[in-house]
TrEMBL record, chain A:
Matching SUPFAM superfamilies: Fe,Mn superoxide dismutase (SOD), C-terminal domain (SSF54719), Fe,Mn superoxide dismutase (SOD), N-terminal domain (SSF46609)
PANTHER family assigned: SUPEROXIDE DISMUTASE (PTHR11404:SF38), SUPEROXIDE DISMUTASE 2 (PTHR11404)
Full protein name: Superoxide dismutase
Subcellular location, record wording: Mitochondrion matrix
Binding residue positions for Mn(2+): H55, H103, D192, H196
Any Pfam family hit: Sod_Fe_N
Superkingdom: Eukaryota
GO cellular component, one term: mitochondrial matrix
GO molecular function (one): superoxide dismutase activity
UniProt-listed InterPro entries: Fe/Mn_Superoxide_Dismutase, Mn/Fe_SOD, Mn/Fe_SOD_BS, Mn/Fe_SOD_C, Mn/Fe_SOD_N, Mn/Fe_SOD_N_sf, SOD_C_sf
Functional description taken from the UniProt entry: Destroys radicals which are normally produced within the cells and which are toxic to biological systems.
Enzyme Commission number(s) from the entry: 1.15.1.1
Catalytic activity: 2 superoxide + 2 H(+) = H2O2 + O2
UniProtKB/TrEMBL annotation, chain B:
Statement: the UniProt record of this protein carries the keyword Oxidoreductase: yes
Protein name: Superoxide dismutase
SUPFAM superfamilies (UniProt xref): Fe,Mn superoxide dismutase (SOD), C-terminal domain, Fe,Mn superoxide dismutase (SOD), N-terminal domain
Protein's UniProt keywords contain Endoplasmic reticulum: no
Top enzyme category: oxidoreductase
């Protein structure tokens, strides 16, 4: 605050671009849109390039932007001791922070076929899936059914309950992260069933999206997360 | 209750029928495309009606009016299974009838006077309705509604509507993504403005307001 007051208006406007650094100076970590590790069209025909581009550049970017705004407002409110503003911001933080968290996982949950997308999980995760769901087909059927039945917007998840040491399938509403369903839940695979995730390609037929998305699910990533959590 | 009487007398008596909009599917172009109407009415709305029929078959809800099902399955927010299909069937018929070709803009007469009374100006109402529609997170609806002799703006999640919250619905905009994604993709604010400027049927709103007032006074 003291540093800002000695700066002229021109200097301040020139510093607008580095506002995230100023925020960083005051201790707020802001967020940026992560790059995709594949081209927008690389998941075709399961998910169209048009959807991937809008989903990443518009929807996820908006969550990041709004999350950063909410965090800046939160920081100010905390510094001022403005308790009611702090509380009022919780839904913006949950929506937009959750949107950022969930989509960041989602991009890693997907991979082009030539990078292993759709290849069934092997090793420990493959074994655990067979144990808990009978087979990969059994898991896929359950997740697809729960994803199709979800009313409104949300996600269907394969998670690991770290405490109970078992795999679970669950859904969350809107942009609620999986951890809101249980503090010991670690997301392994999340499938976005908000309409924006499939509408331009699959229209109202969410079950067709859910049938096809498995062809680009990156089980290698899910296995890495599973094995690191199981240590 | 007043709402139950109102629901019984409301113009939306879908009762498991997929009623076509009061205009052809291309009549709202260029503001809402024929393709959107084909999917939104022809697939989404149709599915709610068809699935409701299957769902209530053989249950104690079978043969009950749509309004009865909605009010009896809301269960204070702990929704019973038939709520989603029933409420969405109701909401969508109400939505088609909230629009008309050549609609939108500022109303006149009694409706304008009431908007000015309860919102200070049409512009303030416009901003409030816009904000509600833009900030309903995830799927849902924004409404102009009437309760306790006052107009108010409301927003509801998923299939919830003002009937279950003790208010008379007068106008709605669907903000589920399927309502605007083909025409506007992620640009919900543009969709809302287009709806307000070009699609709202103030005639429908007026006649619903008259019915709401009549129902209120008859129960006074």
């Amino acid at each position: 605050m003291a540093i800002r007051s000695v700066l002229s208006t021109r200097t301040l406007s020139g510093l607008k671009e580095t506002s995230s650094k100023l925020l960083g100076f005051r201790g707020i970590q802001t967020f940026t849109l992560p790059d995709l590790p594949y081209d927008y069209s690389a998941l075709e025909p399961a998910i169209s390039g048009e959807i991937m581009q809008i989903h990443h550049q518009k929807h996820h970017q908006t969550y990041v932007t709004n999350y950063n705004n909410a965090l800046e407002q939160l920081d100010q409110a905390v510094n001022k001791g403005d308790a009611s503003t702090v509380v009022k911001l919780h839904s913006a933080i949950k929506f937009n922070g959750g949107g950022h968290v969930n989509h960041s996982i989602f991009w890693k949950n997907l991979a082009p076929v030539n990078q292993g997308g759709g290849e069934p999980p092997k090793g420990a995760l493959g074994g655990a899936i067979d144990t808990h769901f009978g087979s990969l087909e059994g898991l896929v059927k359950k997740m697809s059914a729960e994803g199709a039945a979800l009313q409104g917007s949300g996600w269907v998840w394969l998670g690991l309950d770290k405490e109970l040491k078992k795999l679970v399938v669950d859904t969350t509403a809107n942009q609620d992260p999986l951890v809101t369903k249980g503090a010991s839940l670690v997301p392994l695979v999340g499938i976005d069933v908000w309409e924006h995730a499939y509408y331009l390609q699959y229209k109202n037929v969410r079950p067709d999206y859910l049938k096809n998305v498995w062809k680009v699910i990156n089980w290698k990533y899910a296995s890495e997360v599973y094995e690191s959590e199981c240590k | 209750s007043i709402i139950k009487e109102m629901a019984a007398s409301s113009a939306v008596t879908a009762d498991y029928v997929l009623k076509p909009p009061p205009y052809s599917l291309d009549a709202l172009e260029p503001f809402m495309s024929r393709q959107t109407l084909e999917f939104h009415w022809g697939k989404h709305h149709r599915a709610y009606v068809d699935n409701l029929k299957k769902q209530v078959l053989g249950s104690d809800l079978e043969g009950k009016t749509l309004d009865h099902i909605i009010l009896n399955t809301y269960n204070n927010g702990d929704l019973l299974p038939a709520f989603n299909n029933a409420a969405q069937a109701w909401n969508h018929e109400f939505f088609w009838e909230s629009m008309k070709p050549g609609g939108g803009g500022k109303p006149s007469g009694e409706l304008l006077a009431l908007l000015e009374r309860d919102f200070t100006s049409y512009e303030k109402f416009y901003d409030e309705f816009n904000a509600a529609a833009a900030t309903q997170f995830g799927a849902g609806w924004a409404w102009l509604a009437y309760a306790d002799n006052k107009l108010k703006v409301m927003k509801t999640p998923n299939a919830v509507n003002p009937l279950v919250l003790g208010s008379f619905p007068l106008l709605t905009i669907d903000v589920w993504e399927h309502a605007y994604y083909l025409d506007f993709q992620n640009r919900r604010p543009d969709y809302i403005k287009t709806f307000m400027n070009n699609l709202v049927s103030w005639e429908a709103v007026s006649s619903r307001l008259h019915a709401a007032k009549a129902a209120s006074s008859s129960s006074a």
